[in-house]
UniProtKB/TrEMBL annotation:
Residue intervals passing through the bilayer: 24-46, 58-77, 89-106, 112-134, 146-168, 174-192, 213-235, 241-258, 270-297, 303-324, 336-353, 359-379
InterPro entries: NnrS
Highest taxon of source: Bacteria
Pfam families: NnrS (PF05940)
Protein name: NnrS family protein
Keywords, sorted A to Z: Membrane, Transmembrane, Transmembrane helix
Organism: Candidatus Nitronereus thalassa
Amino acid sequence: MPNMLSVTFPPQGKAFFSYGFRPFFLGASLFAGFAVPVWILVFAGFVEMDFPYPSREWHVHEMVFGFLPCVITGFILTAIPNWTDRPPVSGWPLMLLFILWVAGRLSLACPWVPGVAAAIIDSSFFLAVAGVVWREIIAGQVWDRSPIGILISLYGIANILFHVLALGNQETNLATRMALGLLMVLLALIGGRITPGFTEDFLAEANIAKPPAAFSPFDGISILLIAAGAVAWIIQPQHVATGWIFIVAGLANIIRLSRWHGWVTWREPLVLILHVGYGWLALSLLILGGSILGFGLQPEDAVHALTTGAVGSMTLAVMTRATLGHTGRPKKANQVTIVMYLLVTLGTLLRVFGPLTEISTTLILSLAGIAWSGAYLLFATVYGPFLLQPSLDDE
C-alpha cells in the first residue's frame, strides 16, 4: 500500500509534516513572536481585545497552555522515534494535530466563539497529544518513558481545570500552579538528561577531558525535591514549609548544574544556553521559595524566571539544535542564533529584575516583551525556511 504522505503532499508539504519539530517549532515561534506584543499593547492600554476570558487570563493561558505545549509536543514527537525505534508521527496525523493546536489558539482569540466551544477545542489538543504519547509508549514497550506520558496527561487535566474555573468566573491560580509545577518537573527530567548529554558530546569532540558527572542518587534527590515543592505549592502555596522546600530544591539543583561543567562550553553557545536555562530553573526555585518566606522578589517574578528564563532559554536551545541536526546542518550556533540567545536572556533579566528599578513598569515590561518575543521572531525568520524545506541529507 503506498504511503499517503508521499502520494498526497508536494515536496515542501512532505518535508514540513515529516517530523513533529517542523510544524510545532515554527508554530510556537510565530505565536510567541506575535502573542506577547499583543499582550503588551493590551496591558499598556493601547488596544482593547474582546477575548473569551479576561485579558490577563488569556495571556496566562496562552503562554502556559498554548505556547509551551506546542514546543513540548514538537520535542516529544521528535524524540519518540529514538525512544521506541518506531517511525515518527508524520503526514496527515501530524497535520491534524497541528491544525488542532492552531484551532485552539484561534478559538480563544475570537470573541464570537462561545467560551465552552473554545475550551473544548483547546482541551482536545492535549487529549490527542497524550493519546499519541501513550500509544507510542505502549507500542514500543518503553515503560521507562511513562513519567513523560503521566506528566503530559496531568498537564492536560490542568488545562481542563483552567477552563472550568475561567468559565465559572473563578480564579485560575490553582490550574496555573498545577501546570507550572509539572513544568518544573519536566524541565528537571528532560533538561537534566539533554544538558549533560549534549555537554558530554561537545567535550568529547573538543578533546576536553572533563566530562559531566554521571546520573547519581543526588540527581534523583534533586528532581524529587522539585516534585515535592511543586506538590506543596499546588496544595499550600503560602505555607512556610513550601518555601523552605523550594529553597532546598533550588540549592540542590545549583549543585546539580555545577556538576555538568557548563562553564567549559563557552566555546559553543548551542550547548551553553542549556546550562543557562537550567540555571534559571534553579534560580526560579530560590526566588519562589524566598517570596513565600517573605524576603526577596515576588511570586510572579519567580514564575517569569521559570517561564521566560528557564523555558525560554531551553526551548530555544532545543529548537535551534534539533532544527540544525534534523535538517542535515552543522550543529553550530551562528551569530544570529547567538543574538536570539542574548535577546531571550535580556528579556528575562528585564522581566524578573526590571521592576526593582525606578523605571516605569509599563516601559520595563514592554522592553522585556520586545526582547523576548524578538528572539522567537528571529528563529521563525532564520530557521523557518529550514523547517519548511527538505533536509539537506535528502537532497
